[in-house]
What does this fold into?
Amino acid sequence: MPSSELTKRALADGIKKMMQTASLNKISVEDITRFCGISRNTFYYHFKDKFDLVNWIFYTEITPHITKFVDRAHWVDGLTELCLHMQQDKKFYINALNTEGQNSFSECLMDFYRTFLINSIHDLHGDMRLSDREVELIACFYSYALTGIILEWAKHGMAEDPVPTIHLIESLINGSLYHEVKRINDLHMKNDIDAG
It folds into this structure.
């Protein structure tokens, strides 16, 4: 692993350990560098502030879990793996997600699931009549819902087993989303025939 990655990982491990007992709001860059035995200049060489460090942790830890399962048949496996990973590092995630202004976790999930859903919608029908705007709106709607449910579960302590909720989300997405896309597409096809 390159030296830069080792330093980032050391800072990430340090802030995660500190967040086991202290709120992210109460931790300063100086606290982090002292805890890790790294200079402030070194910290600022890699991250602009403590939130940038937490964002890096989110992206480096979340992405491998959800991107392993990018197709429609396996996206639930990725979501399940992500939630189980979060439970293993519960104090860090709850602390970070309950910090005001910390939204990079939701942005990361939103970006991933929006792209996943757009691709899934396009894969559904070879003869798609939906406009790009309609596909984007549908994907955004479901991405916000999915991300919101995960955030609520996390912010409330991750006490519940996430699997039953994930199965309900799966049935909603596989049922209503794909049914609604087909209904809108069929309506466009009918309108094209009526106009022709």
In short: The CA atoms of residues 15 and 32 lie 6 Å apart. The mean pLDDT is 85. DSSP finds nine helices and no strands in the chain. The chain has two domains: 1-47, 51-195.
